[in-house]
Amino acid sequence: MTPKTGVVLDGRYELRDRIAIGGMGEVWTATDISNGQHLAAKVMRPEFAGEKLFLDRIAAEARNSLPLDHPGIARTFDAGVVGGLGYLVMEYVEGETLSAVPKRQHTPTPRLILEVIAQTADALAAAHAAGVVHRDIKPGNLLITPDGTVKLTDFGISIGENQAPMTDAGMVMGTAQYLPPEQAMGKPATGAGDIYALGIIAYEALAGRRPFTGTTQVDIAFAHVTEPLPALPGTVDEPLRDLVEAMLAKDPADRPASASDVATRARALLEDLRSGLWDPTRVADAWRGARALGGRALTAGRAAAQRLADGGAASRGGAA
Fold it and tell me: Which pLDDT does position 159 carry in this prediction?
């Protein structure tokens, strides 16, 4: 089978328009002809038809993502194999990737950054509770819908509980710019690694640059291990700086204990924004000054957060 407009997968899902091409698969808009629902379909590229490695990978993605039912995760509804090509049928999400936001806003606002942290952390908490580690948290895998909801996508290199590794020894899965130090060293991926990658996203949004760079993917990956975290700009206020730096601790044990803890801390800071305790347009450390003047202490969960808003590759000894 060759994916093209009009092809029907398993007699049910009709492909409409190809919207993306990745290393392993293509993403199409699709229609469920049984009920007219507008969906997205990820289909293996035809040159990989019948290849066990790619079939195993898409089967693992289906196994890990199908049970996840959370408003912050793009749902996977169905999976199968047609003509030697594995496919997934997923929720179609209207919106843009987080990576597109700086092109419009230049520097995202603290409110947007905190909303992304809180909502993504909520989604990660649901995945982690189901025993799934995403392993490829990056701006391109976070979609922001028109109503401001953040949707986590692409579980293509995720790993579940008791799942056998599908890579050779010495191979690292993930995207180098967002790779946790422990994964760069070849240690097992855990939820703490997803927290670290989300911290890199927040750092990049606040500083306008990534904290670790290099001339090759391997150089970048190991900079996460060997180089100290560069200081955030002085315009980043203390409580927000503390949260991001905690998420980026080299030792996973020094990061927030869970994604739920990250979401709680981010929402406490959002409440300070709404209450006026913190004004991000003022000088740095405005939060600390407000406290000195008798501002209330941070509290978590005082208000519901406002709705806001290419799979990873493997490389030997590093990440792509």
Answer: 94
The active-site residue, picked from 17, 56, 136, 147, is 136
Q: Which has the closest alpha carbon to 110: 211, 244, 228?
A: 244
- CA torsion sign, 185 to 186 to 190 to 191? positive
Weakest mean pLDDT among 35-49, 253-267, 279-293 = 279-293
Which one-letter DSSP state was computed for residue 73?
B
Average pLDDT value for the chain: 85
Closest CA to 199 of 299, 114, 127, 73: 114
pLDDT for position 281: 63
φ and ψ of 289, to 5 deg: -65, -40
Alpha-helical regions (H) of 130-190: 181-184
Q: Is-catalytic flag, 168?
A: no
Question: Between these two residues, 111 and 76, which has the higher pLDDT value?
Answer: 76
Q: How far is CA 61 from CA 56, 75, 90, 123, in A?
A: 9, 12, 12, 16
Q: What is the 3-state secondary structure (H, E, C) of 3-18?
A: CCCCCEECCCEEEEEE
Q: Which pLDDT band holds residue 103 (cuts at 50, 70, 90)?
A: low
Query: Is residue 29 within 8 Å of residue 17, measured between CB atoms?
Result: yes
268-288 pLDDT, tens digit per residue, is 999 988 887 776 666 455 555
Residues 6+ apart with CB under 8 A from 292: none
Distances (CA, A) of 28 to 3, 31, 151, 261, 317: 9, 10, 18, 36, 33
Record the pTM.
Answer: 0.85
Phi, psi of 294 (to 5 degrees): 105, 15
- Residue 23: partners with Cβ closer than 8 Å, 6 or more residues away: 310, 311, 313
